[in-house]
## 1
Amino acid sequence: MSASVMITGTSWVEAEARTLFVPRLNNAYEQYLFEESAKASGVEYWQVKKFAETTGLPHMAAMEAAFDEAVSNAGLQRKIKKKNGNRVGMIYFDEYGPISFMERKAQIKEMYYSDVFPSFVLQAHNISGYSVRLRAERNAPMQAMQLAKNLIESGDLDVVFVGGINPCYSFFFLSEQLETVQWEKQQGIKTNKENNTRNLNEAAAFVVLESADHAEKRGITHATEILEINSGREYYSSKQADKNPLPNRWNLIAQRYPVAKAHMGLYPSELMTKTESMLLGDSLGDAEQVNWYERKGDSNSLNVLRVLHEHIRISESNPSVQLIHSADRNGFGWNLLFK
Amino acid sequence: MGPTIVVSGVGCMSDYADSSDAFFEKLKQKECVEFEPVFTDSIIQEVFGFRFNPKFAPMKRLQKQHGSRYKRFGVTDPRVALMVKTTNAILKDAGLTRDDMRDERTQVMWGAPGNQPDLRSFLVQMQSNDKLDLMLNPKLKDLHVKKFRNDSLTTQYADYYDLQRPVDTVFSACSSSLSALVPAMAQLQSGQVDRVLLLAWQEVSTFDILFMSGLNILAKDQSLPFSGETEGLIPAFGIAGVLLERREDAQARGQQAYFSVKGLSASRAFGSANSPSMGAPARMLSQTFESLIEKVGLTPSDIDAVFPHGNGIRASDQAEATAIAQVFAETLPAVANYTHQYGYMLAASGAFDLVAAAYSFKHQEVLPFHSPVSLDDTKGVNFVLDKAQPLSLKRLLKNSIGIDGSLVTAVLESVEAA
């Protein structure tokens, strides 16, 4: 193997049964958000998989389970040798900042692990290398993987765990829906109100990034290689369509890599998905398009990790080059190329 | 070995001083900031269960003063306005302009916890509220994703500068400033970017106050780092940053850099799986200092000055002082900590010390710090207390400790010695 960066492990822990969200009668604000959101977007049914309700598993326990699964899947020892512990790190991402107070039972220890850093998983595995929390948006995994890749390439670390959790709190998903409608309005697009149901998943997930040399020394002979992660400004407004650099970016990618499959639709906006699909056809015409829009339920920032997990763990081994594209409302889009 | 990375511009803002020049001047005069009570209403203090009203320095006046200035440019959040103002000061100091921020090869890193909601707006009524509550407390609507998402801030900042790369916001509690240095250095040394603007900040949010109160680390009256009489810490909202680039790029512009970053050590190695860590033990600190110094090809006698973390939590300060005394017993480098004067800047504390280090390297002296009490708890440490200590400053060790268990240490070197 070369000095490249590989994905040597993945994990995915998801809540099980879906329950229909009904706003609480004693919470006028929740009802207000629910009604406003339905009026603006047409979404009246929120099918939500929640850890506490369907599995009894709190968020941090789900995160721990996902981390342990990633350790195991990567073939790493449960207790990393102490002398090597500082060569392993974690980039833990989150979208919302402090949320422990959403749970009535949260005490100072829960606040610490949930809102500052879940250091207990590192201590449990003797991991003592550079580890931080990354505050980012839906594309947090892309951003975190890019940071991890840099740290591996610079020689700071050999292995980096990248992951997080997706909590589904009513105040967040209802107001998020309102924000999306507001964003679509700003782009001059009429919101499609035909789809009246949204499926949301609470989940926890990790991927393990590792230098190829380190993986080879451990006897890993086959792993998914990260070819490139890039980001840039994107424009989805019809008024700014000519400014959208996506075609150029994808044309450049097409010159460098024979992309066989392109995953898109990771942001639950029909506008974004249609634009991506149309532009993709122009630039990467031969690539098979996989549209994740509402395919398996929305797990927010974990959607990217789900694609990787399903490709690596569930799909058959496939050496072809694949692309994951995902954009945020903040105007930045990301491309991840792997094989 | 990669290219030499230098700091070519600095800037800061807080209630203590609204610019780096004012900051240096106040440090020279050994001035102290005036703190204010967190709760303006004793009823709210009781609702949140506080036995005493803690103090802080929240930059309210500066947010009000500058908050409206950038509104016509789309910067509607006063916190972002202060970040923009500080960023512009750093750019000017580095001989760069706003156009350089638009460059595809410019990366912005925030060492910060990011956006946090004001829990006072909704915490009490979050689980149960009626229409009357909604009418009487319009702030209940702050229980909205835009008050939680970090892009509420980064989008305004990125749009103002038309950044071509997303802002990376990394957080490792109070070592966030130096933690952000690690990926910044990796990107610069690999040649992926030409410059990194590292901006560290942490607003003192209600969450922070509740969390620190829960840990019993807030001072009632006095925070006196490295003194046996300290009661804990007094937090302050501060923004500080540096411009990092390759030495030859700064030289090509004719820009005199302040110092170079010779080496970094970042680890996460204290606390246990069952309990959060409140500080790093002295032995671990001394091992970290020694191994970093050795890694960069130096010995303890090559270190002329030390800026410790010094947050005002007694156990943490004592461990740091013990480690400094052990490692530098023979050479006694100048040790300075200004936390008592401007407040504990949390995630930004390391960046404020980088700004102070810029002064020290430029003027070849370590400014004295003010302590109203004796520091006799910390024998064997050469604290600079009375007057500025002139020295031939070649290398400075900066240490940073996060309550999340992180420990980040940097060796900074004069540009001439690099």
Note: Chain B has a mean pLDDT of 94.
## 2
Amino acid sequence: MTAPPIEIHDLTVSYDQKPVLWNIDIEIPEGALVGIIGPNGAGKSTLLKSVMGLLDLSSGWVKIYGEPIERQRATVGYIPQREEVDWDFPITVSDLVLMGRYGHLGLLRRPAAADREIAAQALEKVGMTAFADRQISNLSGGQQQRIFLARALAQESRVYLMDEPFAGVDATTEKTIVKLLEQMRSEKRTLLVVHHDLQTASEYFDHLLLLNRRLVAFGPTGEVFTEDLLRKTYGGHLTVLSQAGEAIRQSKSGKK
Amino acid sequence: MSFVELTGEFFSSLLGHGDAAQATINAVLGACLAGLTCGVLGSFITLRRMSLFADMLGHAVLPGVAAGFIIAGSKSTPALLLGSLAAGLLAALLTRAISSHSRIKEDASLGITLSLFYAVGIWLLSWITRAGPELSSQASGLNHYLFGNPAIIQVIDLVFLASAAVVIGAVLGLFFKEVSASIFDPSFADSIGLPRNLFDNLLLILLTLVIVVSLKILGVILVAALLVIPPATAYLLTDKLKRMVLLSAALGALAGFGGVYLDFVFGIGVGPAIVCLSFLGLMGAFLGAPHHGILGRYLSHRKLALKTLRENLLTSAWRIGERGGELLAIPIGDLANERGEEPSATRLLARHMNGSGWGRLENDRLILTSLGQERARTLMRGHRLWEIFLQREASLAPDHVHAGAEEIEHFLDAETVRELEELLDNPETDPHGKAIPPGSGEGETR
Amino acid sequence: MQTRTLPALLLLVLPLLVSCSPSEKSTSGGKLSVVCTTGMITDAARIIGGEHVEVTGLCGPGVDPHLYLATRADQKRLNNADLVLYHGVHLEGKMGDLLARIKDSPREGQHISAVADVIDKEKLIRNELFGAYPDPHLWFDLQLWKVAAAEAGKALQDADPAHAESYAAATKAYLAKLEETHQWALARIKQLPAKKRKVVTSHDAYNYFARAYGFEVKGLQGISTETKPGLQNIRAAVKYIRVNSISVIFAETSVPRDAVEKVAQEAGCEIFEHELYSDALGKPGSQAESFLGMFRFNLETILTALGGDKGEDQ
């Protein structure tokens, strides 16, 4: 019996002694395309960072295929929200994507031709091959998002954590990303994606994780995307609630 | 002696002839090597925004120099080097400790450490002058230690410098990808398990090392300058990190060489000469670098303006062609009418078409090539699709859409046009009822 | 007396007591306290002042007066001294402001004198190379130093009229010794052939010596040790050595050796085993601890190094 890709047990995370996430217990099945949804401040980004071991846990643990994250770095790819990078850094698109191979190389080894090939293919998958030699600041927001995605693909991880990959991107990029997620799922990779838009959440993901500092619900989209659970998740956020209602109505009527 | 003769003497000194040839050779070797090493390491340091550390460390080594002297009882090079190294590392440690364990930010922390260490250094030096004749008589020149003099460096100094250069080059070469990833994207580095702190500290140690071995040759201010100016210059000249590092090394070495040359011929002091040369290089890049320099940006702006001008002529020509006018050879008068200008003005503009590959001015007619026609067609297609887009999606009235489309037609690339076609369901006429030229995707950017 | 009036009286009397500060002598055991800058002046002050003075020198053996920075303790000593003797002619480069301040407004009863300032300006060596200021190293011309020593004696007499006679006599004796040494030097130098009288040292401290006693001197650095020798200086020195076939050059005690060592390396000549004294005297117990001792030592050293025979001691 193999261990699940992601197992989270009794996870609690605090900032400044205030709990931001507490008592999270989840097991993510392999090959699931999971959307994490919840209101602002629900701790969605925090959850991803905790799984990645970037934050200290007040309690609980996280296992990736039965092992702690420190031993599974090559297995998990993480795409944070975009802003944290120096865009003026002298690095081209292809160099950035190649960085995805560094986890496999370890110290001292240089990227080989095979690594460059993998990087090139990843770039191709996101439709950015034409931009390979551009410095990264000469790109639109959506294009920037795509190259970070390509880097993650180049990592060839089995598990991917993505923080709002669809935020602020253009239509082409959004389509590209959705296609990519589908493809990755068909490759039996497990995907955990923080998402902000309720309407598309029910379309894009086969599992949903409803989060508001506590785990409200986790399961297949059909089961979990109910008015009742959404109300529990979004609490007093009324405008979102009506969005939620609309989203449910639309998904029920089968409109894509 | 004229400067030409002196130049001749300089180069023959480098070949070993003439008075004090070895001193000149040593000075050149020292300055170039130091410039090169500072250029390489400085690239990473400036990208990592650690440049202020260089200045702090240059001053913080003073108590180490004094302590080394006191312990060794003389100005023995190894003692002073070890002392400065120890002081530098301690200072770096202290700076990091202050900012990581309190609210105090790194820049203030640097100021604190610099002042503290320098003050202790001065105090130790003045203690030495009063410490009795054995020590004080040996101490002359100790307070000059921070100021360097390439003219009197000995082979042992070069050996230390070369060793440091080798170490720095090897470490940065071996860990190139780790160091650059740590600097560029710290959270990615963390996520793939790179020991980011280790590499941060490594940079700091290498920085201390290069400062310590370069002090005697260049002095504090000069080392700080070479760690910043050549990398900044290279930064403006390239978009690839490897090239930036190599360029920075070359610029540093060149500045070193030039500085010694200027001191040899004009006696102006190696230090100031190197800094001024580096700065001139920076100004050159600042103004003239192709993408990031002022001149470069101005030129590309001009290029864009020219392209826009030519494309406007093309669309005007197309409209004439649509109404049944001759497309391939348009009289300037007709073109001027279409554009609402004086023929003389149009003629002036039409001249700019020459050399574009899209057409030329001949016999007072604008002649279009097939490439030019293609481009005109593509432009019109984009323009009219955009008009429909504005009308449908932005709900603009038909007479409001032309101006917007007029501006954007130059920037619609093939991908965006395809998107528009899809979005609008491949329409065939624009809001004014004009036919939309069928697509072919040729004749792009000039 | 009532208890209130006593404090009031004290308050009245105190200022009077304080204002009657010692006018000519301080309480250093009844001796005149004299603070001097350079070792040469300190030596002269001790000799002339004898048992009537307590002399403190700021620049000890091996200390460079061009660069010397007065500490807080030094400033106190200067402020408390009855008599401050300094060189002037911009020798004490880094103490200039401090000394000027004391000169302009001395403490009441305090005397201050720049002993070299009284020398006839015509006799000072100027050179465009030196910039605005003349060369201050005039003590190496004993005729000029006699003037400075006399001025020091006069300053002592002004500061302490009670012992003026003693000072005057001591001054006369000292001047006589200076003159005697001067004549001795002139005679000794005749034993060295003129073409060998070329001295290469760390800095331009010996121009007066050269002029007075018939030498050619070349310093690596300028007259102040504040600047560093660059490639041009090194090359010029090497060229000079080569052209004049010099086989021995000199280091100085109060100046770093590394530049001279470099020159010797490049020129293929040696540095003489004994260093010359330039701006400072020697350690206590050495021949050079007194000014005249230092002068003789320098001369003997130069003559021995450059190939002259040792003459009779005086």
Note: Residues 164-189 of chain C form the longest helix (26 residues).
